């Protein structure tokens, strides 16, 4: 459930804040040990300092941490943002 909510939050943030015209989503299973979701947009990117009250980014990281996963958010060199959600899978 938390993985779905994090994915939904990432897409909502893109729609609300990025000004993107294109979004790419890649879902992969890495060596049957980890589920990875990468979401990239071509929007304006994140500002150098994220405003206080920007709970969306905090929520993404917290939701993934609660289920033993990770959330990495970076500005892309070509513009926009890349969000990586990764979750180790049980054997």
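^ structure tokens above, recovered residues below v
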């Amino acid at each position: 459930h938390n993985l779905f909510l994090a994915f939904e939050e990432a897409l909502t943030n893109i729609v609300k804040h990025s000004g993107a015209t294109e979004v790419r989503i890649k879902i992969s299973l890495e060596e049957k040990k980890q589920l990875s979701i990468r979401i990239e947009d071509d929007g304006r990117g994140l500002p150098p300092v994220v405003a206080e009250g920007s709970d969306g980014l905090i929520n993404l990281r917290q939701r993934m941490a609660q289920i033993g996963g990770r959330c990495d958010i970076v500005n892309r060199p070509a513009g926009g943002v890349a969000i990586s959600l990764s979750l180790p899978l049980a054997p």
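DSSP finds two helices and four strands in the chain.
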